[in-house]
Amino acid sequence: MIGKICGTGSYIPPKILSNDDLSEMVETNDEWIRERTGVRNRHIAEHETASFMAAEAAKRALENSGVSPEEIDLILVASSSPDVIFPSVACEVQKEIQAVNAAGYDMQAACTGFVFAYQSAQAYIAAGFYKTILAIGTETLSSMVDWSDRGTCILFGDGAGAAVIRAAEGTAYLPAAHSDGCRGDALVCRSRFSSEFVEAFKKTGETPKDTYISMDGRGVFQFAVKSVPQIVTEVLDKAGLGTEDIDWFILHQANKRIVESVAKRLKTDIGKFPMNLQEYGNTSSASIPILLDEMNRDGRLEKGQKIVIAGFGAGLSWGASILEW
């Protein structure tokens, strides 16, 4: 048995922060941001928490799938910005959607989080442990952004996406996943629960800068444009497929230039690489399921299509899977 996505859902906070809005906060402008990132707007959570958005996305995914909450066996939530340490966001979602028969836990792999959650779901289903799994990516990255740092504040947004994955007959494709902790300093956000944070806050009364997202932009870009084509090629080779066999390459929505570079290195038409980052920015673990939901609902995803999903980000971590719609 394999796991097939049978429903998707997403939640996007209604508040929009445009490039023009940002130009009033830091020294930047719309043209500069769009040229370097492709981002035009990002949505910002006001009162919404990661748990709330995850639950809303889950409800919409269940409605789309026709699966009842009671049928869910496991809830996997990927998030780097949870509003609770414990209980887990997964348990908060379970409570909200009344998935009374489900176990649940959170996983943290930054922008690769949803891909790793999807791969975990596939493994659980293949092993016969569970039949119906809810995988969610949810982020309130705006709470981790230094709004005075134009190198990072222009990039990130908030939102959640979810997919219902159910046991079915089909072709099993082996995934690929990698991590490299030796390069972890390229993208960092320190905990605000550490003793170092407490001591620093006592001394200055201000949140230490290293507890906001800091990034070596050039280093992350170079990592992404090299590692993503490699891992996409890896999963294709495992499956005995070529790029011509794939209908869509759904990448983590980090940066337009990264997506374009990956398409170029794979010698594949950019039209096979859908993007919505222009409206939402980088929503980390939520970006792939949000895009999947958009494409599902607007009819771009059709039964039998082959799709590659690929995530990459802090850790450093990167992963890819092939799925059939």
UniProtKB/TrEMBL annotation:
State the EC number(s).
Answer: 2.3.1.180
Q: Which residues form the Beta-ketoacyl-[acyl-carrier-protein] synthase III C-terminal domain?
A: 236-325
Domain Beta-ketoacyl-[acyl-carrier-protein] synthase III N-terminal: residue ranges: 105-171
Keyword Nucleus listed? The answer is: no
| SUPFAM superfamilies reported for this sequence | Thiolase-like (SSF53901)
* Primary location group: cytoplasm
- Which residues does the annotated region (ACP-binding) include? 253-257
Catalytic activity, reaction form: malonyl-[ACP] + acetyl-CoA + H(+) = 3-oxobutanoyl-[ACP] + CO2 + CoA
Recorded hits in Pfam families, A to Z, give:
ACP_syn_III (PF08545), ACP_syn_III_C (PF08541)
The reply to whether Electron transport figures as a keyword in the UniProt entry is no
Annotated pathway: Lipid metabolism; fatty acid biosynthesis
Tree of life domain: Bacteria
Which compartment or compartments is the protein found in?
Answer: Cytoplasm
Q: How does it assemble?
A: Homodimer.
Which family is it part of? Answer: Belongs to the thiolase-like superfamily. FabH family.
Q: What is known of its domains?
A: The last Arg residue of the ACP-binding site is essential for the weak association between ACP/AcpP and FabH.
The UniProt function text for this chain reads: Catalyzes the condensation reaction of fatty acid synthesis by the addition to an acyl acceptor of two carbons from malonyl-ACP. Catalyzes the first condensation reaction which initiates fatty acid synthesis and may therefore play a role in governing the total rate of fatty acid production. Possesses both acetoacetyl-ACP synthase and acetyl transacylase activities. Its substrate specificity determines the biosynthesis of branched-chain and/or straight-chain of fatty acids.
Name used for this protein in its record: Beta-ketoacyl-[acyl-carrier-protein] synthase III
State the organism of origin. Drancourtella massiliensis
Query: By which gene is this protein encoded?
Result: fabH
